[in-house]
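Section 3.1: Structural characterization of target chains.
Under the original work plan, the team committed to producing a structural model for every single-chain target entering the pipeline before any wet-lab resources were allocated. The record below documents one such target. The sequence was received from the expression subgroup and is listed exactly as submitted; it comprises 453 residues.
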Amino acid sequence: MNLEVEEDNSFVASNQVVHNCVFCGLCVDPETEVATNPGLKPIKDIKVGERVLTHTGAYRRVSKIWRFSYTGPIYEVKAMGKPNSLLCTSDHRLLTVKRPSSKKRDKRLLRVTEPVEMVPPKDAKAGDYLLTPIPKKVIRLRNFSVKWNSSAGVKVMKLRTEPDLFRLIGYYLAEGSIGEGSRVVYLSFGSSEQELVEDARGLLRRYFGKEPYSQKLAHHVINVRLGLTFAMLFFMNFGRGAANKTLPDWVFFASKEKQVQLIKGMWLGDGCVVRQSRQKYLNITTTSKVLAYQLQTVLTRLGVVSAIHCEIRKNRLPAYRLNVFGRWAVKLAGMMGIPFEHNPSKFVDKFLMNEDYVFSPIESISSSQVANREVMDITVEDDHTFVGQGIVQHNCVDACPFDALFMTNDYELSSYDKPSLKYSPEQLAIPPKTEGYTFRVKIDPEKGTATHG
C-alpha cells in the first residue's frame, strides 16, 4: 500500500521518511503552450481551476499542477503545421495514429485515421499522425453589451452580433488600433483598398451611430477613425496593440456563418493570395501568437486545415503566418466569396481531418540527454488530457513512483501487463483478466524488475 500526501508528498513510517504515492514521469517543458478557454498560455502559468482543451473538444478544469526535476532523455517532437516543437520526457504519451507502410515498392505511409492510441514519443516515428481536437462549443449571443460610467451616469449600449459585425471585428484585428490615452479607434488601409475603406466606414456608422472620419496619410495609407467611448470600449475586448490581439469567448465559439465573416475581414485586411510556380495558397499574417492559434482553431471549426509558420525578424516582432493550402484554400475562398482560381489535377495534402480531429504528420523526432531539468505537467478532471503545442497529450496522474508491485483493496497489480508497472486511476478501474486467484511473481531487487510466474 501507499498514501497520497498533499504538498510535502512524504510521510513517516517506522521512523523513516518515505515518499508518498504520487508519480509523474510524463512531463513537458515549462514553456509548453497549452490551449486554454479560449486562449493560449505556457503551462508554467496555468493555475488550478483554469479550463484547458482536451481530446474530447471540451474544456475541463485543471485540478493539480506538477513540477519535477528530471534527468534522462528529452524528446523534441515537431508536428507539421505547428509553429513550435513539443519538448517532453520519453514516456509522455501523445494521441497518435501510427501509420503503417504500403506493401508497394515505395513503402509510403498509408493515410489512415485509426487506431487512435496514446503513444510515447520514443515509440513514434516521422510521418505518424498527431491529433488536434476541434472544439465543439457554440455560444449563440444575440447582443453584446458595453457598459461604462459617464458624467451623466451609467451608460449601457448593445450591439447586434450579426455576421457583418464579425467582419468589422476582423478589420480591427487586422488593421485596427486605439489611440494611446484616447478614445479614438483607427482602421488603417492601403490607398488602393478604397472598397474596404467604404465598407469599414459603413459598418462603423451602422453599429456605432456616428460618421467616421477618413484621412490620407503618407506611404499610401488611409486612416478611418472614430472617436467614441462606446466604440473604444467595444474594440478593447480584442486587445490593444498588434501583438496583443485576441478573440474573446463569444467570438471564438460563435456560429459558422459569423466566423466566416470574421476570417473574411481578417483576410481582406491582413491577408493575400500567394502565387508560386507549383502552388497557390491563402495567407493571413499577425504578430499575435495567441490570435494565430485562435484563428487556426476557428478555421478547423469551419472544416479548414491551416499551417502556422513563425518568422523571426530582426528588430521586429515575430510574424505568425497562417497559410491555407490546396483543397482547404479552395474551400475557404468559396466560403468567403473571394476569387481564387486554382484547379490542379491533384491536390498534394499532408493533413487529414474528420469531425473530431485534425491529423498532422510528425515532421521530425529527436532526443537528447538532460540532467536536473525542470519539467511540468497538470492533472485535468474527467478527460485527463490537454493540448500542448497543438498536440493532444495525456496529463499527469497519481500513481506509484517505483517499479514495484503493490496491493490495492481490489486487485493484485501483478496481474496487469504494463511496462514498468505504473498505473493511472483509470487503468486501475479495469479489472485484470485472471484465472483463479493465485498469482506468482518473481522480484529481482538488484535489477529492479518483476516478472509473472
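The first helix runs from residue 163 to 175.
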